[in-house]
Amino acid sequence: MTRKVSWGVLGVAKIGVEKVIPAMQLGAVSHVDAIASRDIAKAKDAAGRLGIAKAYGSYEELLADPTIEAVYNPLPNELHIPWTLRALEAGKHVLCEKPIALNADEAKALLAARARSGKHVAEAFMVRFHPQWQRAHELAHSGAIGELRAIQTFFSYCLLDPTNIRNKPPGGGALYDIGCYAILTARYIFGAEPTHIIGSLDIDPVMGTDRLTSALMEFPGGRHLTFTCATQTSAHQRVTISGDKGRIEIAIPFNAPPDRPTRITVDTGADLFGGGARTEEFATCDQYTLQGDAFSRAVMGEAPLDYPIEDAIANMRVIDAVFRSAKSGRWETP
Protein backbone atom coordinates (compact mmCIF):
# COMPACT_ATOMS: atom_id res chain seq x y z
CA MET A 1 0.00 0.00 0.00
CA THR A 2 1.26 3.48 -0.88
CA ARG A 3 2.19 5.52 2.17
CA LYS A 4 0.24 8.75 2.59
CA VAL A 5 1.24 11.80 4.58
CA SER A 6 -1.11 12.50 7.50
CA TRP A 7 -2.52 16.03 7.30
CA GLY A 8 -4.32 18.23 9.80
CA VAL A 9 -6.26 21.38 8.93
CA LEU A 10 -6.43 24.52 11.08
CA GLY A 11 -9.90 26.01 10.92
CA VAL A 12 -13.02 25.44 8.87
CA ALA A 13 -12.45 28.17 6.28
CA LYS A 14 -14.64 27.92 3.19
CA ILE A 15 -11.71 27.39 0.84
CA GLY A 16 -10.56 24.51 3.00
CA VAL A 17 -13.80 22.62 3.46
CA GLU A 18 -15.18 23.27 -0.03
CA LYS A 19 -12.10 23.06 -2.24
CA VAL A 20 -8.78 22.08 -0.69
CA ILE A 21 -9.75 19.25 1.65
CA PRO A 22 -11.99 17.40 -0.86
CA ALA A 23 -9.23 17.73 -3.44
CA MET A 24 -6.52 16.49 -1.12
CA GLN A 25 -8.68 13.51 -0.20
CA LEU A 26 -8.32 12.44 -3.83
CA GLY A 27 -4.53 12.60 -3.62
CA ALA A 28 -2.25 9.65 -4.18
CA VAL A 29 -0.01 10.41 -1.19
CA SER A 30 -2.09 12.78 0.99
CA HIS A 31 -4.62 11.91 3.68
CA VAL A 32 -6.54 14.44 5.81
CA ASP A 33 -6.86 12.90 9.27
CA ALA A 34 -7.81 15.84 11.50
CA ILE A 35 -9.50 19.23 11.48
CA ALA A 36 -9.60 21.83 14.25
CA SER A 37 -11.78 24.81 15.08
CA ARG A 38 -12.07 27.03 18.14
CA ASP A 39 -15.69 25.85 18.09
CA ILE A 40 -15.73 22.07 18.54
CA ALA A 41 -19.23 21.86 17.03
CA LYS A 42 -17.93 23.41 13.80
CA ALA A 43 -14.97 21.03 13.76
CA LYS A 44 -17.20 18.00 14.29
CA ASP A 45 -19.64 19.16 11.62
CA ALA A 46 -16.86 19.62 9.05
CA ALA A 47 -15.28 16.31 10.00
CA GLY A 48 -18.60 14.51 9.64
CA ARG A 49 -19.38 16.04 6.25
CA LEU A 50 -15.89 15.37 4.89
CA GLY A 51 -15.24 11.98 6.47
CA ILE A 52 -12.31 13.20 8.58
CA ALA A 53 -11.49 10.91 11.50
CA LYS A 54 -10.57 13.45 14.18
CA ALA A 55 -12.10 16.79 15.18
CA TYR A 56 -10.42 19.09 17.69
CA GLY A 57 -11.84 22.06 19.61
CA SER A 58 -8.61 24.04 19.47
CA TYR A 59 -5.68 24.47 17.12
CA GLU A 60 -3.32 23.59 19.97
CA GLU A 61 -4.90 20.13 20.31
CA LEU A 62 -4.34 19.39 16.65
CA LEU A 63 -0.72 20.55 16.80
CA ALA A 64 -0.17 18.28 19.81
CA ASP A 65 -1.34 15.21 17.86
CA PRO A 66 1.87 13.22 17.22
CA THR A 67 0.37 11.38 14.24
CA ILE A 68 -0.13 14.56 12.19
CA GLU A 69 2.85 15.18 9.90
CA ALA A 70 1.73 18.21 7.89
CA VAL A 71 -0.62 21.10 8.54
CA TYR A 72 -2.67 23.13 6.07
CA ASN A 73 -3.30 26.67 7.35
CA PRO A 74 -6.24 28.48 5.69
CA LEU A 75 -6.89 30.83 8.62
CA PRO A 76 -7.54 34.57 8.09
CA ASN A 77 -4.51 36.32 6.60
CA GLU A 78 -3.45 38.00 9.83
CA LEU A 79 -3.25 34.56 11.49
CA HIS A 80 -1.06 32.96 8.83
CA ILE A 81 2.27 33.77 10.43
CA PRO A 82 1.34 33.19 14.11
CA TRP A 83 -0.12 29.74 13.53
CA THR A 84 2.39 28.69 10.89
CA LEU A 85 5.14 29.49 13.39
CA ARG A 86 3.36 27.50 16.08
CA ALA A 87 2.90 24.56 13.74
CA LEU A 88 6.59 24.55 12.83
CA GLU A 89 7.49 24.75 16.51
CA ALA A 90 5.25 21.73 17.07
CA GLY A 91 7.31 19.80 14.54
CA LYS A 92 4.83 19.91 11.66
CA HIS A 93 5.45 20.68 8.01
CA VAL A 94 3.21 23.58 6.93
CA LEU A 95 1.42 24.54 3.73
CA CYS A 96 -0.03 27.99 4.40
CA GLU A 97 -2.62 29.80 2.31
CA LYS A 98 -1.66 32.94 0.44
CA PRO A 99 -0.66 35.60 1.20
CA ILE A 100 1.93 34.07 3.50
CA ALA A 101 1.93 37.20 5.68
CA LEU A 102 0.83 40.82 5.83
CA ASN A 103 4.33 42.04 4.91
CA ALA A 104 7.73 40.63 4.02
CA ASP A 105 9.35 41.44 7.37
CA GLU A 106 6.68 39.37 9.11
CA ALA A 107 7.26 36.52 6.66
CA LYS A 108 11.01 36.46 7.29
CA ALA A 109 10.36 34.95 10.72
CA LEU A 110 9.62 31.70 8.92
CA LEU A 111 13.24 31.35 7.82
CA ALA A 112 14.52 30.94 11.36
CA ALA A 113 11.54 28.78 12.33
CA ARG A 114 12.20 26.46 9.41
CA ALA A 115 15.86 26.20 10.37
CA ARG A 116 14.98 25.37 13.98
CA SER A 117 12.33 22.81 13.10
CA GLY A 118 13.93 21.22 10.05
CA LYS A 119 10.45 21.09 8.50
CA HIS A 120 9.14 22.25 5.12
CA VAL A 121 7.04 25.41 4.93
CA ALA A 122 5.49 26.81 1.74
CA GLU A 123 2.82 29.15 0.43
CA ALA A 124 -0.24 27.55 -1.16
CA PHE A 125 -0.24 28.91 -4.70
CA MET A 126 -1.93 26.00 -6.43
CA VAL A 127 -1.83 27.53 -9.93
CA ARG A 128 1.82 26.59 -10.49
CA PHE A 129 0.87 22.92 -10.29
CA HIS A 130 -1.81 23.11 -12.98
CA PRO A 131 -0.73 21.79 -16.39
CA GLN A 132 -2.08 24.88 -18.17
CA TRP A 133 0.38 27.14 -16.32
CA GLN A 134 3.25 24.71 -16.70
CA ARG A 135 2.58 24.55 -20.45
CA ALA A 136 2.29 28.35 -20.67
CA HIS A 137 5.68 28.60 -18.97
CA GLU A 138 7.15 26.06 -21.39
CA LEU A 139 5.76 27.86 -24.43
CA ALA A 140 6.87 31.28 -23.19
CA HIS A 141 10.45 30.05 -22.93
CA SER A 142 10.46 27.91 -26.08
CA GLY A 143 10.33 30.73 -28.60
CA ALA A 144 6.75 29.86 -29.55
CA ILE A 145 5.73 33.52 -29.14
CA GLY A 146 9.15 34.99 -29.87
CA GLU A 147 10.84 37.20 -27.33
CA LEU A 148 8.76 37.41 -24.15
CA ARG A 149 7.73 41.04 -23.60
CA ALA A 150 4.63 41.63 -21.48
CA ILE A 151 1.92 40.10 -19.31
CA GLN A 152 -1.52 41.58 -18.75
CA THR A 153 -3.70 40.17 -15.97
CA PHE A 154 -7.25 40.94 -14.88
CA PHE A 155 -8.84 39.22 -11.88
CA SER A 156 -12.07 40.33 -10.25
CA TYR A 157 -15.17 39.31 -8.35
CA CYS A 158 -17.98 41.19 -6.63
CA LEU A 159 -18.28 40.80 -2.84
CA LEU A 160 -20.18 43.53 -1.01
CA ASP A 161 -20.70 41.82 2.36
CA PRO A 162 -18.83 43.86 5.01
CA THR A 163 -18.81 40.91 7.41
CA ASN A 164 -16.87 38.70 4.99
CA ILE A 165 -13.25 38.24 6.10
CA ARG A 166 -12.02 39.30 2.64
CA ASN A 167 -13.54 42.74 3.24
CA LYS A 168 -12.08 43.27 6.72
CA PRO A 169 -8.76 44.89 7.68
CA PRO A 170 -6.00 44.15 8.33
CA GLY A 171 -5.80 41.19 5.96
CA GLY A 172 -8.62 41.81 3.53
CA GLY A 173 -8.75 43.57 0.19
CA ALA A 174 -8.10 42.89 -3.47
CA LEU A 175 -4.30 42.97 -3.46
CA TYR A 176 -3.85 40.47 -0.65
CA ASP A 177 -6.61 38.17 -1.89
CA ILE A 178 -6.18 38.07 -5.66
CA GLY A 179 -3.57 40.61 -6.77
CA CYS A 180 -1.01 38.27 -5.26
CA TYR A 181 -1.81 35.78 -8.05
CA ALA A 182 -1.01 38.32 -10.77
CA ILE A 183 2.35 39.03 -9.15
CA LEU A 184 3.16 35.37 -8.50
CA THR A 185 2.35 34.19 -12.02
CA ALA A 186 4.33 37.01 -13.67
CA ARG A 187 7.36 36.15 -11.55
CA TYR A 188 6.85 32.51 -12.54
CA ILE A 189 6.56 33.19 -16.27
CA PHE A 190 9.33 35.80 -16.44
CA GLY A 191 11.58 33.79 -14.11
CA ALA A 192 12.69 37.04 -12.49
CA GLU A 193 11.85 39.65 -9.89
CA PRO A 194 10.46 43.11 -10.74
CA THR A 195 12.85 46.01 -10.40
CA HIS A 196 10.42 48.97 -10.31
CA ILE A 197 6.76 49.15 -9.34
CA ILE A 198 4.03 51.77 -9.42
CA GLY A 199 0.59 51.07 -8.03
CA SER A 200 -2.79 52.62 -7.35
CA LEU A 201 -5.46 51.57 -4.85
CA ASP A 202 -9.08 52.59 -4.44
CA ILE A 203 -10.11 52.07 -0.82
CA ASP A 204 -13.70 51.31 0.15
CA PRO A 205 -14.67 54.18 2.47
CA VAL A 206 -16.76 51.94 4.73
CA MET A 207 -14.82 48.68 4.82
CA GLY A 208 -11.35 50.22 4.68
CA THR A 209 -9.91 47.65 2.26
CA ASP A 210 -8.76 48.10 -1.34
CA ARG A 211 -11.58 47.29 -3.73
CA LEU A 212 -9.71 48.17 -6.93
CA THR A 213 -5.95 47.88 -7.33
CA SER A 214 -3.78 48.25 -10.41
CA ALA A 215 -0.03 48.16 -10.91
CA LEU A 216 2.66 48.40 -13.54
CA MET A 217 5.89 46.50 -12.94
CA GLU A 218 9.18 46.58 -14.80
CA PHE A 219 11.12 43.31 -15.01
CA PRO A 220 14.69 42.88 -16.26
CA GLY A 221 15.09 42.97 -20.03
CA GLY A 222 12.41 45.60 -20.59
CA ARG A 223 9.55 43.28 -19.70
CA HIS A 224 6.34 44.52 -18.10
CA LEU A 225 3.46 43.25 -16.01
CA THR A 226 0.27 45.28 -15.88
CA PHE A 227 -2.57 44.05 -13.71
CA THR A 228 -5.90 45.04 -12.22
CA CYS A 229 -7.66 43.22 -9.41
CA ALA A 230 -11.02 44.12 -7.94
CA THR A 231 -13.48 42.93 -5.31
CA GLN A 232 -16.45 45.05 -6.35
CA THR A 233 -16.48 44.42 -10.11
CA SER A 234 -18.19 41.72 -12.16
CA ALA A 235 -16.36 38.41 -12.02
CA HIS A 236 -13.69 38.00 -14.67
CA GLN A 237 -10.30 36.37 -15.11
CA ARG A 238 -7.89 36.56 -18.01
CA VAL A 239 -4.13 36.45 -18.55
CA THR A 240 -2.36 37.39 -21.78
CA ILE A 241 1.34 36.59 -22.17
CA SER A 242 2.75 38.52 -25.12
CA GLY A 243 5.89 38.15 -27.19
CA ASP A 244 7.09 39.81 -30.39
CA LYS A 245 5.81 36.89 -32.50
CA GLY A 246 2.62 35.89 -30.72
CA ARG A 247 0.74 35.57 -27.46
CA ILE A 248 -0.65 33.01 -25.02
CA GLU A 249 -4.07 33.54 -23.49
CA ILE A 250 -5.23 31.66 -20.40
CA ALA A 251 -9.01 31.88 -20.22
CA ILE A 252 -9.55 30.69 -16.62
CA PRO A 253 -6.11 31.17 -15.14
CA PHE A 254 -6.74 31.05 -11.41
CA ASN A 255 -9.96 29.20 -10.55
CA ALA A 256 -9.37 26.44 -13.08
CA PRO A 257 -12.39 24.10 -12.87
CA PRO A 258 -11.74 20.62 -11.44
CA ASP A 259 -14.63 19.04 -13.33
CA ARG A 260 -13.87 19.84 -16.98
CA PRO A 261 -10.90 20.33 -19.30
CA THR A 262 -9.13 23.68 -19.49
CA ARG A 263 -7.71 25.47 -22.51
CA ILE A 264 -5.10 27.98 -23.49
CA THR A 265 -4.86 29.75 -26.83
CA VAL A 266 -1.62 30.39 -28.68
CA ASP A 267 -1.98 33.08 -31.35
CA THR A 268 0.65 34.26 -33.83
CA GLY A 269 -1.24 37.53 -34.26
CA ALA A 270 -1.59 36.89 -38.00
CA ASP A 271 -4.83 38.89 -37.94
CA LEU A 272 -7.34 40.28 -35.46
CA PHE A 273 -9.87 37.54 -36.13
CA GLY A 274 -8.02 34.52 -34.74
CA GLY A 275 -6.55 33.41 -38.04
CA GLY A 276 -3.27 32.59 -36.34
CA ALA A 277 -4.79 31.00 -33.25
CA ARG A 278 -4.64 27.42 -32.06
CA THR A 279 -5.98 25.91 -28.85
CA GLU A 280 -4.40 23.43 -26.47
CA GLU A 281 -6.66 21.47 -24.13
CA PHE A 282 -5.69 19.93 -20.81
CA ALA A 283 -7.33 16.92 -19.24
CA THR A 284 -9.58 17.43 -16.23
CA CYS A 285 -7.56 17.73 -13.03
CA ASP A 286 -7.72 19.45 -9.65
CA GLN A 287 -4.87 21.85 -8.97
CA TYR A 288 -5.41 21.52 -5.22
CA THR A 289 -4.90 17.76 -5.44
CA LEU A 290 -1.69 18.29 -7.41
CA GLN A 291 -0.46 20.88 -4.92
CA GLY A 292 -1.17 18.68 -1.89
CA ASP A 293 0.56 15.66 -3.36
CA ALA A 294 3.60 17.72 -4.42
CA PHE A 295 3.99 18.94 -0.83
CA SER A 296 3.41 15.44 0.55
CA ARG A 297 6.13 14.02 -1.68
CA ALA A 298 8.52 16.66 -0.36
CA VAL A 299 7.57 15.68 3.20
CA MET A 300 8.36 12.04 2.40
CA GLY A 301 11.65 13.01 0.78
CA GLU A 302 10.55 11.67 -2.60
CA ALA A 303 10.84 15.03 -4.40
CA PRO A 304 12.24 18.49 -3.74
CA LEU A 305 10.03 21.31 -2.51
CA ASP A 306 9.83 23.33 -5.72
CA TYR A 307 8.72 26.60 -4.11
CA PRO A 308 10.25 27.06 -0.64
CA ILE A 309 9.46 29.92 1.70
CA GLU A 310 12.02 32.22 0.07
CA ASP A 311 9.70 32.43 -2.94
CA ALA A 312 6.80 33.49 -0.73
CA ILE A 313 8.92 36.19 0.90
CA ALA A 314 9.91 37.51 -2.54
CA ASN A 315 6.24 37.70 -3.56
CA MET A 316 5.43 39.52 -0.34
CA ARG A 317 8.13 42.12 -1.03
CA VAL A 318 6.38 42.97 -4.29
CA ILE A 319 3.00 43.31 -2.57
CA ASP A 320 4.63 45.61 -0.01
CA ALA A 321 6.01 47.77 -2.82
CA VAL A 322 2.56 48.15 -4.41
CA PHE A 323 1.14 49.36 -1.10
CA ARG A 324 4.07 51.76 -0.64
CA SER A 325 3.70 53.14 -4.16
CA ALA A 326 -0.01 53.74 -3.70
CA LYS A 327 0.82 55.87 -0.66
CA SER A 328 3.87 57.67 -2.05
CA GLY A 329 2.60 58.17 -5.59
CA ARG A 330 6.06 57.19 -6.81
CA TRP A 331 7.87 54.25 -8.34
CA GLU A 332 9.07 51.85 -5.65
CA THR A 333 11.52 48.94 -5.58
CA PRO A 334 10.75 45.64 -3.83
Give a description of the structure:
The protein is an alpha/beta fold. The chain folds into two domains: 5-127 and 289-303, Rossmann fold (3-Layer(aba) Sandwich), CATH 3.40.50; 131-284 and 317-328, Dihydrodipicolinate Reductase, domain 2. Helices cover 33% and strands 28% of the residues. It has ten helices and 14 strands. The strands form two sheets. Strands 8-9-10-7-11-12-13-14 form an eight-stranded mixed beta sheet, covered by helices on one side. Strands 3-2-1-4-5-6 form a six-stranded parallel beta sheet, with helices on both faces. α2 (40-50) links the parallel β2 (30-36) and β3 (54-56). α4 packs parallel to α6 (109-117). The chain is globular and about 60 Å long.
List the helices and strands and how they pair.
Layout (H helix, E strand, L loop, with lengths): L4 E6 L3 H11 L5 E7 L3 H11 L3 E3 L2 H5 L6 E4 L6 H10 L3 E5 L6 H4 L1 H9 L3 E4 L6 H10 L7 E11 L15 H17 L5 E8 L6 E10 L3 E8 L1 E12 L2 E5 L11 E6 L9 E6 L4 H13 L9 H20 L6
Parallel strand pairs: 1-2, 1-4, 2-3, 4-5, 5-6, 7-10
Antiparallel strand pairs: 7-11, 8-9, 9-10, 11-12, 12-13, 13-14
Total beta strands: 14
Radius of gyration: 20 Å
- The mean pLDDT is 98
**Order of strands, widest sheet:** 8-9-10-7-11-12-13-14
Q: Name the overall outline.
A: globular
Number of helical segments? 10
Give the structural class. Answer: alpha/beta
Beta-strand share of residues? 25-35%
In short:
The protein has 334 residues and is of the alpha/beta class. It has helices spanning 14-24, 40-50, 59-63, 80-89, 104-107, 109-117, 131-140, 174-190, 287-299, 309-328, and strands at 5-10, 30-36, 54-56, 70-73, 93-97, 121-124, 148-158, 196-203, 210-219, 223-230, 232-243, 246-250, 262-267, 277-282.
